[in-house]
Amino acid sequence: MLRRVFGIETEYGITFNYRGQRRLSPDDISRYLFRKVVSWGRSSNVFLENGSRLYLDVGSHPEYATAECDLLTDVVAQDKAGELILRELVAYAQEQLQDEGHQGEIYLFKNNTDSSGNSYGCHENYCIERVEDLSRFEQVFIPFLITRSIFAGAGKIVAGPQGSRYSMTQRGEHIWESISSATTRSRPIINTRDEPHADPERYRRLHVIVGDSNMSEFATYMKVATAAVVLAMIEDRSTVLRDLTLTSPIAALREMSYDLWSETPISLANGRSMTAVEIQSDILERAELFASTHELPTDQKAAIVLWREILETYQRNPLELADRVDWIAKLQIIERSASRNNLTIDSPRLALLDMLYHDTNASRGLYYQLADKGLMRRVVNDVQVKTATTEPPETTRARMRGAFIRKAKENRRDFTVDWVHLKLNDEMQRTVLLKDPFKTTDERFEKLLTSIERRPSLD
Fold first, then answer.
1. Coil, strand or helix: which one is 29?
2. Beta strand 177-180 with 188-191: parallel, antiparallel or unpaired?
3. 3-state secondary structure of 56
4. pLDDT digits (tens, 9 = 90+) for 246-266
5. 3-class DSSP state for residue 321?
6. What digits encode the pLDDT tens for the residues 20-65?
7. In this structure, are strands 266-267 and 273-274 parallel, antiparallel, or unpaired?
8. Rounded Cα gap, residues 403 and 449, in angstroms
9. Which residue among 268, 331, 343, 357 is buried most deeply as judged by most CB within 10 Å?
10. Residue 234 in contact with residue 126, Cβ under 8 Å?
11. Residues of the chain with pLDDT under 70
12. How far apart are CA 372 and CA 346, in angstroms?
């Protein structure tokens, strides 16, 4: 599969503080946050006009799942649109709290751990061919996912028994298995629960759990692009890929997270050892050859060129990637503050900077302060992000979902939607099943859309 559908699910951290003290629980704040959603959707689990899903996850975490995308700029715009949508809900909730006499401020973080050490996820979904044998994924895709933290990690100060250290990834300490059907209990790198949200005879949904939430648009672009390319190579059985199976994937994930400059070799099951950057370089070389002989989408071919640029820059001087890679941008902020104020890595002040990098408030968040100064490389612009809050991608079935929701709301019709179903809740109970995520229109959908304007008879 060369053309591929993908999407990102992001859980957000939320807190409410007044002069450094938590005044309300995350559960209380989330109820305020979703008041506006519940008022029109009658639920805290809704699909939006841009084709995305917005809901309240376990642990009072607001979660936003992008619509299905097959263009890299679409998935980046949709991901950033989620921040904007939730930012508007925060503003509304803030007004409600003030009206009811609650002093304090809501903080919404796009990160993966809170101050108590709890972890919440950023999951990637990739539509792949129906396959039961996952051996090639263990040989290539898992080593790829572990070592891509070089450019996809969000970075974090991690406190431990031997003191605090800086890790290039936030999720590294919270993943416990390579492949599993569980999500919260064992937190695997790849979740194998078989929910394709498409024709189950043709497709499977690969659910990647190991990734960090990225503030950097460039990092989001690259982590999805490179994964899509590697999946294309894995699915193409004629492509020869080196067996990079790791002796202990979880141990390797932990170790390489702290190996910021990729100096320590990782043990492979075949007895060899390679550093993280060597593993990435090996996969990249094969991706370059693959792209020269296969009709990959144009944006993925362009991403391979950027992949080469990233690895060569990293090998030369990782700090030159501060305008593209979250963990490096944040590391520079932390190191500058530590130097100016004579602080050690375990300083609460540095821990606060760590959190504030992920603050979604555009004027307060440290990432956005860098971006406003032109210090972070962008992939999309503000207009594209704003548009993505209301418009679905035009090249996947999300187009039909978004159009259906918009028209049903305009005509005040009761409806039910999920990833594959569109249903009008009237006496006809008309339902359209969208099993092909690549289709943008369907005769049954067009008839359903037309029927929305025709009110059912009261006779």
1. helix
2. parallel
3. strand
4. 999 999 999 999 999 999 999
5. helix
6. 777 788 889 999 999 999 988 889 899 999 999 999 987 788 999 9
7. antiparallel
8. 8
9. 357
10. no
11. 181-186, 455-459
12. 29
Contacts of 268 (CB under 8 A, 6+ apart): 244, 245, 246, 247, 274
Report whether 174 contacts 120 (CB < 8 A): no
Residue 216 to residue 219: CA distance in whole angstroms: 5
The answer to whether the Cα torsion of 322, 324, 325, 326 is positive or negative is: positive
Residues catalogued as catalytic? 57
d(CA 191, CA 58): 18
Rounded CA gap, 404 and 411, in Å?
11
Q: Which helix (H) or strand (E) holds 109?
A: strand 105-109
**54: helix, coil or strand?**
strand
Which residues, 6+ apart, have CB-to-CB distance to 171 below 8 Å?
112, 119, 121, 122, 209, 210, 211, 212
The Cα-based distances of 95 to 88, 152, 209, 321 in angstroms read: 11, 36, 35, 39
- pTM for the predicted model, two decimal places: 0.95
Residue pair 60/66 in contact by the 8 Å Cβ criterion: no
Q: What is d(CA 134, CA 206) in angstroms, rounded to the nearest whole number? A: 11
State both tokens at 295.
């009709």
Instruction: Label residue 333 left, alpha or beta by phi (over 0 means left) and psi (-120 to 50 means alpha).
Output: alpha
Q: Which distant-in-sequence residues (6+ apart) come within 8 Å of 335 by Cβ?
A: none
Q: What is the mean pLDDT of the chain?
A: 93
* Domain 6-388 CATH class label: alpha beta
| Two structure tokens written together for 400 | 């039909």
Token code pair at residue 2: 């060369």
What single-letter amino acid sits at 52? S
